[in-house]
Specification:
The chain is α/β, with parallel strands linked by helices. It contains nine helices and eleven strands. The chain starts with 6 loop residues before the first helix and ends with a helix.
């Protein structure tokens, strides 16, 4: 007799993985922590496989768990797509989006892929640029929805997440060279640049800007080449770079804020749905780092 996978259990499974704990998943799916644990245990019993193992305070999928999670996401997407079509909520029109480059390689493709599978008739225009440019375009009505990282502007915003800033260096670097600390930074104005300098000044550590660029890709290339260290969030660090831990004896940094804004304007149905997709995919993006 074939085993039927309950889609509610699959949603719970995906939430537990993306959020890293059963208690956080419980809040997302509207169940108690014990109910979530029981759901996952029953699925493991039916499959005869262990899907998660404990790793410190977090959850790590087993090899079988990785396979089930991959299929679970596809099943959930197909289910939601079918429901959207059958309920008559076929969306049309266009959505004009603005993203910071920190999330252009990870979050943006994930959100766009999920949205387009469910709403293929919607045209999407995505702009990747710095905060100031995105905010200006939003104010002029050239964009419908933008994400901003850390910097506040005149536009009305809502907070999506609060992320720790981090010192970032090449993967083969475990400690810094002697002072002055070499900094690779974006062109001013840049909140991360200002935060790095302020933290070093407060700690009485000498520093020197050795590389400046207008592009995030150029910044990552400079750090990867060993020209200096930089400051961003851990959620946007490329695979070839690492977050320096306490062994590097660098000063603590403030928190960064991830904002979403429509400029106070009412969103079209297509843009409103894309906003929902953004918030739904956020936990998975942040859990990767």
């Amino acid at each position: 007799m074939p085993i039927n996978l309950d889609i509610d259990v699959l949603r719970t499974l995906v939430a537990a993985h993306d959020l890293g704990a059963f208690n956080r998943a419980a809040k997302t799916v509207g169940r108690s922590q014990s109910a979530v644990s029981q759901q996952v245990s029953k699925l493991e019993d039916r499959l005869g496989l262990e899907l998660f193992r404990k790793d410190g305070r977090g959850l790590v999928p087993t090899e079988a768990g990785e396979i089930v999670l991959a299929y679970a996401r596809r099943i959930i997407d197909l289910n939601d797509e079918a429901v959207a079509i059958l309920s008559g909520s076929i969306l049309h029109g266009a959505v004009r989006l603005g993203f910071p480059s920190d999330f252009a390689d990870g979050w943006l493709p994930a959100a766009l892929g999920r949205f387009k599978r469910s709403h293929p008739n919607v045209k999407i225009e995505a702009t990747v640029d710095r905060n100031t440019v995105l905010a200006e375009r939003l104010e002029k009505g050239q964009l419908d929805l933008i994400m901003l990282l850390t910097e506040t502007t005149r536009v009305e915003v809502e907070t999506l997440a609060t992320l720790p800033m981090a010192w970032i260096s090449p993967a083969n670097s475990v400690r810094l060279p002697p002072e002055p600390v070499p900094l690779a930074v974006l062109e001013a104005p840049c909140t991360f640049r200002a935060a790095a300098i302020a933290a070093l000044d407060k700690a009485g550590i000498a520093w020197q800007i050795v590389f400046t660029t207008p592009s995030l890709a150029g910044l990552w290339a400079a750090v990867d080449a060993g020209l200096g260290v930089t400051v961003r969030t851990a959620a946007s660090v490329p695979d070839q770079l690492v977050v320096l831990n306490g062994g590097a004896e660098l000063p603590a940094l403030p928190m960064a804020h991830l904002f979403l804004s429509s400029g106070g304007r009412e969103l079209s149905p297509a843009a409103a749905r894309f906003k929902e997709v953004l918030t739904e995919t956020l936990p998975a993006v942040l859990s990767l780092h």
